[in-house]
């Protein structure tokens, strides 16, 4: 009766009782002819290469008392075989088929650890009984040659069944690192695999195999070990040690070639994973650097934001958001998305965001901002398209001005808990060119919350945009039903729960704005004709407003500064001058006229009659500046209000 085969009788193993005789022919390892009179070999079943696979038992013996299996039966494929190309390498054809299947599974991942796991799964038990992977420490990346001695650190060990492929055991950091010098280093740097009995390997063999040498079955020396270097495109990445047990045939010269191919494809996969991870980290850092590090604190609106990179961080996206303070306590709220996922997308995003900030500084209306942004995108290249939503919120008038360039519409959460998708004319994406954009003016109720977002929040592989927008509105209504006027940070976290993390492959940018408005009692506003007596009239109005607000300690300084700025505006204005006082934690004065010429501070000469006004403003005001508008300019300055004079309640002050 045929002796029972165990799972250890894998390809290249010697059946019990054959020690001391010539090796039987085994197509799993090599094609050498068997000795005369030796028993015909039993072809080992092909390994599936999958976790938990166990070779099936041999077919039943053809007759009682015989120990010779039926050759025809031995040639039949075992039941449950999933891939005939995963037979152990024996003949040249078998080796090619094995390598094709093994390299295909090794190369299918861009993750370093997964690539090395696939190497171990492909090698065990078909080609080897144990695998040790050492990687260079530190792992080289980029073009620069590694500095210092050649050091290897144990990365992972695989022994026995495939599900035992594990990382280096805890505590292996001490003995798992070895410094390679001499002829062994030359051998590895040359990229040549070698058997365990090679003289170059002998000095480092003990340290190299120490993690498995202390096990219950110490690896035998000699040609049951192959050391193959993992050579990337420019650097040595590490080594892989392939071992066979004593009950299995030793490696042959053909097996050395197989090991070399396995190592080459593994090194290529690790090299790609390292370079890909390095590029991805650079792209992530680039994008995060170009996103705002903090949101501005502006009067009349509270802000919160979130940014989530793609669930699969293989490629970075081009999503961005921004909040830009504008003259008159207004704020521009922006969200955009550059199409594509690459380092280029992140770079284009940075350029477009910078362009938006520059255009916002000119205080252009939203449709003009999108028009100039579209022109800039075309100069960068017609293939670089993006979507953008540009909004201006005015807390004093409590109005919202919105323009859309192919972006998902914003959602407004009203104070009563209802959620509304704002109807904005959807313009063409940025970069299309030749398409007009349109702005929409709408109310912005105090206590309402505006949500701007990119399509990664509402769209995924299993959900279209409008289904996601409906889910977003439903989540906002449910949250407002539980907590009236939910805090912005909590609201952002709640909104992100609608994400389908399993199917999400895009990054997400979210910007939330809570409209607090600006109390009319804290605003004083006048239009004055550009006449010689206008400066005196401005001083009177300023004194009256400050006296009403209880800011008498600021009267003298404010009158002087208002007089200087208004006098300068009268000199150049051809239309009525706007004078506005705003009371918050500071007293802000704004003087606007229709002249585009922005004043610049200069040093007046001894005989000059003018040129000292801005010098006084610079010395007496806490801050000051000038902003060019599409209709002229605004010159402003701020003075600190002492703590005891700041507005605290709804009854403080009167409407001017």
Describe this structure in words.
This protein has helices spanning 71-75, 92-106, 112-123, 172-175, 182-190, 202-208, 210-213, 253-290, 343-361, 366-380, 465-482, 488-495, 534-549, 555-572, 613-620; strands at 130-136, 150-159, 166-167, 177-180, 194-195, 225-231, 236-243, 301-308, 318-326, 330-338, 386-394, 399-405, 411-413, 419-421, 426-427, 439-443, 449-453, 508-515, 523-528, 577-583, 586-593, 623-629, 632-640. The protein has 656 residues and is α+β, with helices and mostly antiparallel strands. Strands 1, 2, 3, 4, 5, 6 and 7 form a seven-stranded antiparallel β-sheet that branches. Strands 9, 10, 11, 12, 15 and 16 form a six-stranded mixed β-sheet that branches. Strands 8-18-17-13-14 form a five-stranded antiparallel β-sheet, covered by helices on one side. Strand 11 and strand 12 (399-405) form a beta hairpin. Helix 8 packs parallel to helix 9 (343-361) and helix 14 packs antiparallel against helix 15 (613-620).
